[in-house]
Amino acid sequence: MIHTLFAAIPSPSSGSVHIGPLRLNAYGLMIALGVIVAVRIAGRRAEARGVATTDEFSTIGMWGVVAGIIGGRAYHVVTSLESFRGRWVETLYVWHGGLGIWGGIA
């Protein structure tokens, strides 16, 4: 019964919105929203416990996102070395895709 219900819900026609030359993907917006909400909630909890102020925790969250992107890209590059052989500068092209979740959370 539940499988039939989910099969009847149509997928959106597009997973992105174009604002001028900028394309915003729905999954990227949802990830960003989730990170923002998680950092805000964790910041309030840290401040309530006297561990850090909300601003300090926001800074920690920002650097955590940067570290996650770098780690995710590094994992992808290491596990896909053949794709980058002879084109090492492309290892920096994060916008072309290729982030490994295990590198991002490690």
Descriptive account of the structure:
The chain is mainly alpha-helical. It has one domain (24-105). The protein contains five helices and two strands; from the N terminus they run αββαααα. It has a two-stranded antiparallel sheet with strand order 1-2. Strand 1 (16-19) and strand 2 (22-25) form a beta hairpin. Helix 2 (26-48) packs across helix 3 (54-79). The termini are far apart. The mean pLDDT is 85.
Alpha-carbon distance between the two ends: 39 Å
Q: Uncertain segments of ≥5 residues (pLDDT<50)?
A: none
Give the overall form: extended
Relative strand content: 5-15%
Identify the strand order in the major beta sheet: 1-2
Q: Write the element-wise H/E pattern from the N-terminal end onward.
A: HEEHHHH
Number of strands: 2
Major sheet description: 2 strands, antiparallel
Helical run tally = 5
Mean pLDDT: 85
The rounded Rg comes to 19 Å
Alpha-beta content class? mainly alpha
Estimated helix fraction? 55-70%
Please indicate the count of domains.
1
